[in-house]
Amino acid sequence: MTASFPLPITTVITGLLALTLVGISVRVTMLRAAKGISLFDGGDKELGRAMRVQGNFTEYVPMALLLLALLEWMGTKPWLVYGLGVALVVARASHAWGLYSNVFKARAFGGTVTWLVLAIEGLIALSVVA
Questions:
Q1: Domain for residue 3, yes or no?
Q2: What are 2-33's pLDDT values in tens digits?
Q3: Residue of 3, 2, 10, 119 whose CA lies nearest to 69
Q4: Is residue 68 within 8 Å of 92, Cβ to Cβ?
Q5: What span, in angstroms and rounded, lies between the C-alpha atoms of 61 and 41?
Q6: Domain for residue 2, yes or no?
Q7: How far apart are CA 40 and CA 96, in angstroms?
Q8: Average pLDDT for residues 55-65, to the nearest whole number?
Q9: Which domain range does residue 67 map to?
Q10: CATH number of the domain to which 101 belongs
């Protein structure tokens, strides 16, 4: 990677989250195969939970990454971009673990931090153009 590589921070965070999504998706596929369920969750709570982890991830992460990329592109201080990105990675890992293991505090922490990251990113983006 060269020094002029565009959006290096967002690229690292996106790579980490892409690998996380692959892991989450493999879990869903393995549960489907083990339980013989090809569509929906077949009423299986474990598969339903894994599907919600995957669904929740795909609902929140794209917007957070888009905003992160825009902030980096607009010249936001690198420490802030890294901080938001790392917070997002930790939040998504905590949320997934909390849902898989039925630990509400981990799930709530992950969800809350994800919302905070999105809110902070949105406010910064709006403040730059206002």
A1: no
A2: 457 789 999 999 999 999 999 999 999 999 99
A3: 10
A4: no
A5: 23
A6: no
A7: 19
A8: 97
A9: 8-129
A10: 1.20.120.550
